[in-house]
Amino acid sequence: MQVFNLAAGQLVNESTIHFYARFIEIIGHLKNGASTEYARIECTRERRIKGSGFRVQLHSYPIAMKDIDISAVPSLRIHLKSEKQFKVPRVA
Q1: pLDDT tens-digit profile of 23-32?
Q2: Which domain of life is it from (predicted)?
Q3: Distances (CA, A) of 55 to 12, 48, 49, 50
Q4: Is 9 within 8 Å of 18 (Cβ atoms)?
Q5: CA distance linking residue 12 with residue 59, whole number of Å
Q6: Please, what sign has the CA dihedral across residues 63, 64, 70, 72?
C-alpha cells in the first residue's frame, strides 16, 4: 500500500493507472531470469459483474528499467531514478 499511496504514476487510459516503484533490494525476477528492484502496480477500474458500479483491481509485478523507459513518460522515469527507494514489506 505504501507504493500505491506514494509511488510515481501515470494515467494510461480512462480506466488504468500504472504506478512505478524502485525498492532497496531485489523484489523479483523477469521472464529472462534477470533480477530487478523495479515494480509496476497496475490499477484498473472495472464494471461490477453483479449489481451496479465499479470495482478497482490492483496487480503488481516486477519490471525492467528498459520496459519503464518504453512505457513511462520522461518526467516519471527521472523521478523514479531519483526518488527514495521503498522497503520490501515482510510478512510474518
Answers
A1: 888 889 999 9
A2: Bacteria
A3: 17, 6, 10, 11
A4: yes
A5: 15
A6: positive
